[in-house]
Model the fold of this input.
Amino acid sequence: MNEKEHTRRRPTRWLLPIALLVVVIVLGVALCCGTALNVRYQIWRLDNELGAAQAPSIDALVAIGPPAVPALREALSSPRQATRSAAAKTLARIEAPEARAALAEALHDPNGDIRFAAVYGLMGSDDPALLAAFRTALGDRRADVRQMALYALQAYPPQTAIEELIGILKRPDENLRAEALTRLGDFPPAEVLGRLFERLPTEPDLAAGAREVILRCTGEDPGGQIELLLTWWAKNREALLQSAEPDGNNREDERD
Done:
């Protein structure tokens, strides 16, 4: 091959890689556009169907996953209750932070069933960013929404769960407070009482709850006034905290 022919053919070496790159880009764009069109189509179906007829669209949107979340978030603002309900149910099945954030917004929906679906869909998450949403649900006007929010706190680390359960002791819902007391009984008394009495001096509305916690943990009744509670804590604090510490010396004696 002479030099002239070699020079003429050299550019063709790059044609195949360039062509492949163009094909990949075109396919990517087509795929993105196809996904977006599919999402819009499935949302349109949700907006025009009811009940079981929405199930195929819900399944399709769940299969698409996070790319469907922006459109589902929009659907949560639909004037049509059935559309908002289906959007909440769909978001509850998509494992992504943006889906959980959208569900947190649904906790402000005027329909109680949708709020329940939202808080139910958030259960199992220990994302600190969702604590504000669960606190909102704890003040919901529907008892089942409040109860579900309390159950959701079980997914959080112990210190976080204790903090949130103590806060529930200030709420007006007697059933919710009773459930919070029961849940606090699952944690070491020293940890619960220690954090409770750190908060009590600046949160006097915890006094009644503090009295109930002491009764449940120790069987003693110091009374319901803050002064009596703080006096009881000053008297018993050291013994309670020491009882919660590992007795390393005794274990060493046993090994010897």
Remarks:
- The CA atoms of residues 99 and 126 lie 14 Å apart.
- The radius of gyration is 29 Å.
- Confidence is low (pLDDT under 50) at residues 26-32, 248-256.
- The first helix runs from residue 3 to 9.
